[in-house]
Give the backbone structure.
Amino acid sequence: MDVQSNLNRVRERIMTAAFRAGRPPEEIKLVAATKTVPSEIIREALNCGVVSLGENRVQELLKKYPDLPPETEWHLIGHLQTNKVKKIIDKVALIHSLDRWSLAEELSRAAAESDTVARVLVQVNVAGEETKFGLSLPEAEDFVVAAVRLPCLAVQGLMTIAPWVADPEEVRPVFRQLKNLAQRIEGSLPGATMKYLSMGMSGDFEVAVEEGANILRIGTAIFGQR
Ligand SMILES: *Cc1c(COP(=O)(O)O)cnc(C)c1O
């Protein structure tokens, strides 16, 4: 496995998909999904210009945190337990997995205590899969409307995990629906900034780029099979 050449390939594919969609590739942020990847290998990716890392679990993030340079931008992309919020609130740039009201309240409370603002994306289970976390499409808009009123919570966009499919074309409608939801929310809620759409993983990121993703969470295509 060669992180450098994998990254080159991934970046090339992002660029090609962006040009195909008439989008500037610079507006697309790559978050390297690093669950189960040891710190030494992650460091290789950082040496190749990766800036943002996405971890799924709080324990794993805390374990790797001291190993890696302080300028690393950490993202929490996995399900977050309410009782772990305090441990990461001052360490992460963005939490992609806000999926329930109790977590929104705890994030705002913990951020206030740490004199910070919790920057979050609301996770939407667009396809309604029972095995996945996230609000349903019909719930999501009201949830955002309520969440933006919490004092120390900054809702910056939406995140989804598309169903696993052999042909990524099949999940194009999932990405399109998330983008439509973001536009609907921006239209109906003055002051709501749906700045980020976090969608697209190793198997489907090109389609996600074509549908407007500006954060991609990519693991396998960079680090190889877990
Ligand atoms: C593992 C993971 C990814 C990356 O998946 P790959 O298929 O390895 O690119 C992205 N998002 C989340 C939430 C993940 O858990």
